[in-house]
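User: Before I run my own analysis I want an independent prediction to cross-check against. Here's the chain; please return only the structure tokens and, at the end, one sentence I can use as a sanity check.
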Amino acid sequence: MPCDGFSCKRVVENRYARNKAPHGDTILPMNAFWNSFETFLGLGLEPKDLTFVQISVRGIIVFLATLIMVRLGHKRSLAHKTPFDAVLLVILASVLSRAINGSAAFFATLGGGVVLVVLHRIFAHLAYYSHGFGILVKGKPDTIVRDGECDFPVMRRNHVSTHDLEEDMRLSAHTDDLSKIRVARVERSGDISFIKNNLTHATHLTYETGDS
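Assistant: Structure tokens:
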């Protein structure tokens, strides 16, 4: 049906209005939901203005997010096996605590935590394939006792006194006789590991064999 310019313009405007209405109906509820969410979490408020409920909800969300981050990482990072693992947990805790107390942007802080976990996982992956890179980020063990003799310069470099060595011998090796220790090492985690010699056991076996 032919129409003049004014009529065609009105038809186009009516169609545009009908198409725009559902879009506007969708945006309004989303805006209302986001405004309620902002109020619920206290987004944009100063830390001193946060309520007990807002801080509690923030803590719950950060707890769940941290649990997911840790699951994305690996189990050894929770065991503080090396300073490399401990650094992740210390920094991650420091960063995410700011999301709870409101001293930093909430979602940006959660994103920063994810970046730290991913970076740690990438470094661990590289350390698995590159021994040199593993030594760089995790360190290497040092031998402080060999065949019952202490290496005092290495002990001094690792800040291990003879009293520290004797204490770990009693707790880990269950002996206070240094001559029974074949090798003792300060591991990358900072713990001291012991390997006993088998001299006593071998002598005992020889004695029994001779009797028979």
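Sanity check: The longest helix spans residues 5-41.
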